[in-house]
């Protein structure tokens, strides 16, 4: 009975001992040197999380494959995702306070609104829930949970050793870079992902810590993880300039398909998440629909990286294994049609996985659909006898195209594929396809799919420091609720008396339900107030102007933007469309300066 407790106490004692050594080390060496050591430790922690997640997911995939080969269990790979999602919901409700943050957007919110603070539970919550969801076959990716876990390691390490805001945010980014580097053995892509997607305003001096963490993650992953677990290719890739036109066309198609995938995923996830059922019933319905899709399209099981390798080697017939049409695997047109259908269904499967309560991300699905898209594009020309395009090249370049379009991260896409293919032989087509796809996607969708919903509401602007500070200021902490108001039943004499007896330069006009009807400004009616004839013959309705207002739930950046655009000194604040007060530009700037000063002090 005491053995487990003794072991737990020994572990705690060891960690306290190591922590004490680090505190001592911090007093001996310079702050910059301690930051570099911290980058290594955060990198190792993130890499170990990656190893745990990837190994579990790979083990489950091998287990399912083994059982199917041994016992011919056609339904087993459909049942496991249902169990995994239900277990995920159970863990979230029973052990994680009923909620869990999903997607890389949560990291950006932490940077923009929480000064780089990420809750401690995220260091283990993502590992547990995503391993249950994706590891047991949910049609999503592990990379988003990996990045959140890495960011949580970096943030909490920085909190523990009292790093300032700048270095805390940097260590958060180091955790992200290490996670991506370890997941793909791609250190350059890890650095670029942290800069392009997570923290767009990093200075040049941030590159060294990011590179240290990213390299650490890649080294630990390469030493511990088996090569078969990682997505990589050993072929020699050669670019034929005569195919340039086809790569341009693939870039256009990849950009358009990125828009389809992002919008279909959001639609399905939102619909599933908003089903009017209790969590377990919702999870059962959503996972049940996912199970049907996986039964029809077995390659939707889990991350799907194994099927990417199958396509890249032009052995697409293999993805029909365990499907209802397995016997047609010799028919090239049937196989081609099956690949196309899987390509379009993947976004639905991922939406069901995450909307029903599972945890995962869209990084792996973007690579999945990108490879299927590239393969289909090249295979089509071969099947119609028009031109034989290099299947492997187009399959891997397609991954970069869709990744670039979905995450608005062309550099990450280019170097990730370059690194997992072991060279830069495809650099030119990667540049072509990724840039075109990014341009098309960016034209139609201002924000990437991961931050679309929060950025549209103005919740996160990681590339704008001023807005980051403004968005940290909550309106409910700075608005005033002492505004004197009138109704249309009042007269202009009441307007005059209110201006004479208060310091207000404006008067909101409301109805009985406190809905704002308009506003009267002192400067606009000054000539009327001191002319008795005009005062008696003028009505409030004729002098009030349309009132600008913000909801209490909106961010302060939006309020200041409205004030500036309309040349105002203040703006009304509402809650559920009812007037509750106002906030002045002077107050916003005063609190902004105080926050800016605090960040500098940190």
Automatic annotation (TrEMBL):
Q: Which InterPro entries match?
A: CBS_dom (IPR000644), CBS_dom_sf (IPR046342), Cl-channel_core (IPR014743), ClC (IPR001807), ClC-type_chloride_channel (IPR050368)
Keyword Transmembrane in record: yes
Provide the membrane topology annotation: Multi-pass membrane protein
Question: SUPFAM superfamilies, per this entry?
Answer: CBS-domain pair, Clc chloride channel
Every copy of the CBS domain together lies at 479-535
Main localization category = membrane
Question: Keyword set for this entry?
Answer: CBS domain, Chloride, Chloride channel, Ion channel, Ion transport, Membrane, Transmembrane, Transmembrane helix, Transport
Tell where it localizes. Answer: Membrane
Indicate the secretion signal residues: none
User: Which terms in the GO cellular component ontology are assigned?
Assistant: chloride channel complex
Domain of life the protein comes from: Bacteria
A GO molecular-function descriptor: chloride channel activity
The record's section on Gene3D superfamilies has: CBS-domain (3.10.580.10), Clc chloride channel (1.10.3080.10)
TM segments? 34-53, 73-92, 170-200, 206-225, 245-263, 283-301, 333-357, 363-381, 393-418, 424-441
Would you tell me the protein name for this molecule?
Chloride channel protein
Organism, per UniProt?
A: Paenimyroides viscosum
């Amino acid at each position: 009975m005491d053995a487990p407790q003794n072991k737990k106490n020994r572990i705690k004692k060891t960690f306290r001992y190591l922590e004490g050594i680090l505190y001592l080390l911090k007093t001996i060496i310079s702050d910059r040197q301690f930051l570099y050591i911290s980058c290594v430790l955060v990198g190792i922690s993130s890499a170990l999380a990656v190893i745990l997640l990837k190994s579990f997911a790979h083990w489950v995939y091998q287990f399912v494959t083994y059982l199917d080969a041994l016992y011919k269990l056609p339904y087993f790979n459909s049942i496991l995702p249902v169990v995994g999602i239900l277990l995920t919901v159970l863990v979230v409700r029973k052990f994680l306070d009923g909620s869990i943050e999903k997607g890389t957007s949560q990291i950006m919110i932490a940077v923009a609104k929480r000064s780089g603070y990420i809750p401690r539970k995220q260091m283990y919550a993502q590992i547990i829930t995503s391993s249950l969801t994706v590891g047991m076959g949910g049609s999503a990716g592990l990379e988003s949970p990996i990045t959140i876990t890495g960011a949580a390691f970096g943030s909490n390490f920085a909190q523990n050793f009292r790093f300032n805001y700048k270095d805390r945010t940097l260590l958060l980014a180091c955790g992200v870079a290490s996670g991506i580097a370890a997941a793909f053995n791609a250190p350059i892509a890890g650095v670029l992902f942290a800069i392009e997607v997570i923290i767009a305003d990093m200075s040049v001096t941030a590159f060294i810590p990011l590179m240290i963490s990213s390299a650490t993650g890649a080294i630990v992953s390469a030493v511990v993880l088996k090569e078969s677990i990682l997505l990589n290719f050993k072929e020699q890739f050669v670019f034929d300039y005569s195919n340039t036109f086809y790569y341009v066309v693939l870039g256009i198609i990849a950009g358009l398909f990125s828009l389809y995938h992002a919008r279909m995923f959001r639609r399905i996830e939102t619909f599933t998440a908003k089903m009017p059922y209790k969590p377990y019933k919702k999870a059962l319905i959503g996972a049940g629909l996912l199970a049907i899709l996986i039964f029809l399209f077995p390659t939707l099981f889990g991350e799907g990286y194994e099927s990417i390798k199958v396509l890249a080697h032009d052995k697409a017939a293999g993805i029909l294994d365990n499907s209802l049409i397995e016997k047609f695997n010799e028919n090239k047109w049937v196989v081609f049609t099956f690949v196309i259908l899987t390509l379009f269904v993947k976004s639905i499967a991922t939406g069901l996985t995450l909307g029903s309560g599972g945890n995962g991300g869209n990084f792996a699905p973007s690579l999945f659909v990108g490879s299927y898209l590239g393969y289909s594009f090249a295979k089509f020309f071969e099947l119609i006898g028009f031109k034989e395009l290099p299947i492997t090249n187009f399959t891997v370049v397609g991954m970069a195209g869709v990744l670039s379009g979905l995450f608005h991260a062309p550099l990450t896409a280019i170097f990730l594929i370059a690194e997992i293919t072991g060279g830069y032989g495809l650099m030119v087509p990667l540049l072509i396809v990724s840039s075109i796809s990014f341009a098309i996607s960016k034209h139609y969708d201002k924000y990437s799919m991961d931050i679309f919903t929060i950025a549209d509401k103005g919740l996160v602007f990681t590339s704008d420091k001023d807005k980051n500070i403004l968005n940290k200021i909550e309106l409910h902490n700075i608005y005033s609720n002492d505004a004197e108001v009138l109704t249309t039943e009042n007269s202009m004499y009441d307007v005059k008396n209110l201006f004479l007896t208060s310091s207000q330069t404006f008067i909101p006009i409301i109805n009985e339900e406190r809905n704002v009807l308009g506003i009267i400004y002192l400067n606009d009616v000054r000539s009327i107030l001191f002319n008795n004839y005009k005062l008696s013959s003028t009505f409030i309705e004729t002098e009030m102007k349309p009132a600008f207002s913000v909801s209490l739930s909106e961010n302060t950046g939006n309020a200041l933007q409205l004030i500036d655009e309309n040349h105002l000194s203040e703006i009304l604040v509402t809650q559920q469309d009812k007037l509750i007060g106002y906030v002045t530009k002077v107050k916003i700037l005063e609190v902004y300066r105080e926050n800016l000063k605090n960040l500098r002090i940190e």
